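To: structure desk
From: M.T.
Subject: fold request, one chain
Message: Could you run this one when you get a chance? Sequence is below, nothing fancy, just the single chain.
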Amino acid sequence: MRRALIAVALLLAAACGAGGEGEGPADGPDVLRVLAGSEIKDLEPLLRRAEQEAGVKVRLSYTGTLDGAEQVASGRAAERVDAIWFSSNRYLSLIDGAQAKLATQTKTMVSPVVLGLKPAKAAELGWDGKPVTWADIAAAAKDGRFSFGMTNPASSNSGFSALVGVAAALSDADGALSAEQVAGVTPKLKDFFSAQRLTAGSSGWLAEAYARDQGVDGMVNYESVLLGLREPVTLIYPSDGVVSADYPLTLLASAPEEKKALYGKLAAWLRTPAVQKDIMTGTHRRPIVPGEAQDPKFGSAQLIELPFPNRRSTADELISTYLNKVRVPSEATFVLDTSGSMQGDRIDALRTALVALTGADASASGAFTRFLNRETVTMIPFSGHPDEPVPFTIPERDPEPVLAQIKAFAEDLDAGGGTAIYDSLSAAYDRPVTPGRYNSIVLMTDGENTDGGDYAAFEARYRSLPEERRRTPTFVVLFGESDVEEMRQVAQLTGGAVFDARSTSLSSAFKEIRGYQ
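Reply: Done. Structure tokens follow.
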């Protein structure tokens, strides 16, 4: 069962990458190319019916929330897709000039972001069948009475929506939160997120991580994800409001006329009674069309929509505050192949990818994927053997000097020698972990193991580790001629995921992984 769960997680993580392809045909006059959030992936089986029932072939590619918004606003998305389909267009609408890139949008379904708790924990807290506010939840979190998981707001809309909702509910703002009010609500946010124990770059991967970790009491996620869990949870709908996703299928203004016609057919088909019912029963999302009967599983709670920031500066300040001041700090270890096969362009790509994480990437997604304040980053370069680990701890204030040290370290990397993958990965797992932090390992290699122990030796060593050490996932980056099957085994064994940099870039893969650290 555990391997089956992780296999799904690997599939979801691979699909989340910038430009990651989903299922569907190549471009053509009857193909609608859609850039989507990973949350849409569960609709792929349904969309295969659209060719027969609506005369539209759908080709999906996937990206993260902020990265997708930047692609649209910059015009890069128009070069390869005709439409976008994210769980929300709210952040996109805050970017200057973005609205001019959009044409028609059609809301297709609804799912609020709420808290799901194990039934016994909900009963223990007295929240089973009783009105609960975000303030009640924050108070219990501060007292350590429960723990939860949530996605990274810089990578996933469910985490972003949760952060907006909690901040709006806990602040004294009468309407939409302002950048100035973010500072005032920060102490309350810190109390709330002190109970967070799991993070992730996508809602689906978070659900799988939660299913594996029996020590976490609940999860803040889409209602649809919570209803789809194998083990049932009690859903807590805060009485002071939520932020919901409405999944707007949106035509780009640049789409040619024949693609506009395809968009119209698909949008109309998605809102037909039969398809709305199939969405509701198959994906646990609420129908968007007025008058469509809702399944009793959604309960009878009245949903109040909390106000969303009306300025990008506020949204960005909120995300930055969460990452650098509020959330539990992280410890990230990078196990980096510097063997002889990495000479030339490959070692240059590795240097570039690491330097980008020190703040060199000036994009919004780059700002939120850099090494964070309060984070400890450890570098373990390896060739025929692992080098001595080099740790860096970024302070909460004035991070630039330490980021400059990491940049200098990255620029000084050189290539030569053999490839001791598993001895080097073992060296990372031998390092002590700080309890209560998000611990993760990134393994990047461009070849097969040539020195030291093999995969079987690593597996035996890993299984002998204390439980708290085995909880650290390894996120594997496929690059060059790395052994795909063995790398997938590493990810499966450790509860991590695989990211493919062979068709994109190391920089893209490293940025995506940051959402999971």
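Reply (cont.): Confidence is low (pLDDT under 50) at residues 1-19. Let me know if you need anything else for the meeting.
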